[in-house]
Amino acid sequence: MPGGLSRRLKSAFILQAVLACLVIMLGTLVASTLTVDYLITRYLREEASVFWRARQADPSAPVPHSAMMHAYLVTPGSSAKLRLPSELRAHQPGMSSSSDRQHRVLVEDGPAGRLYLIFGSARMFTLGRLMAAAPLLLSVLAVILCTWLTYRIARRVVSPVDWLAREVRLWDPREPDTRALAPDRLPSNSGAETRQLAGALQRMAERTRAFVRRERDFTRDASHELRTPLTVIRVASDMLAEDSALPQRAHRSLARIRRAGRDMEQVIDAFLILAREGGVQPQREDFDVRDVVYEQVERVRPLLAGKSVELSVLETAAPRLYASPRVLGVMLDNLLRNACTFTEQGRIDVQIDRDRIIIQDSGIGMSEEILSRAYDPFYRADPDNPSGKGMGLSIVRRLGERFDWPVSIESEAGRGTTAVIRFSG
User: Fold this and answer.
1) Long-range Cβ contacts of 212-217 (<8 Å, 24+ apart)
2) Which CATH class is domain 173-280?
């Protein structure tokens, strides 16, 4: 798998081998250079010491000379300085290098004058590096071999964990197949830790599968079971509303029953949609967004009865969607009901743009603390307010995430709230 444990392990061992080889090569180069430099320096100083002793015993003793070294002696009052190469005249007593870095120069003052010893160091440094090449090559090969053997052992150790990761990656989150993690199906080289991990993953997946099934079945069954009595209530209340003999007080109570029934139907619709499998979408169709908006606006207008609140719709575009108008209706219904509930005076504006719907009210708004918990299920900023069930914004957010219509809310206490539904694509 890309970026898996085995791949990272391989990359780590390759990096380790490369760094080790670079360190060995650099160390060998530095060590050989320092060693050759030390040997040349010691050789020149010993040659100079031998020459001074010989010169003390015999004033006519010649300066040392060999295939790789030659010398100059400059005595006071002699013309030897004129024969001294110009590039040597600037050298002071001590060890130094020539201007072309090809020679090492030792300058010493003695009783008989100043001695210049010039040694052809380039060949010695080349020879030193050639002599270091054999152990360097052996060291690099040893590092590569040890790294490869260690990687093979480490890969064998982690391969069961890598196998576990691949198996878990293939699981369906709704119905994880845990049979592959049975003890008799694990790789033969699985250790005790791997078997414990496999067992824990298997038990966790089984509990998760059972939990998902219970939640899905409960939501579906409860929603369907609630639909039957709600249908009876709605039909009976509609029939009663047509009875002109009912007193005015009964009509007010009946209107509250009908509103509560519609609210409950909206919640059940949302639960039924959310209880479906992720791959099962509600029926899609082409529809005008404005039709759904106006339908929901008219449904919530009774909530503003007795309030000095103006509810208006502004169209700056006429978008059409291929989606579920039912889902959009549930989302709008919850947002509009919140706006109507918490706005006592002022305006509620619904704006239809090309890629979004904006609902802005001049209500009581929310503080930062309340806004941070607004999406929590059953959370209500005002527990004493009997209106609302605390599920509206939670349902809106979950539906928006499910159908790729993200919802954002901005609010400020005392300044109102703005909710935005954005359409993907």
Assistant:
1) 212/174, 216/275
2) mainly alpha
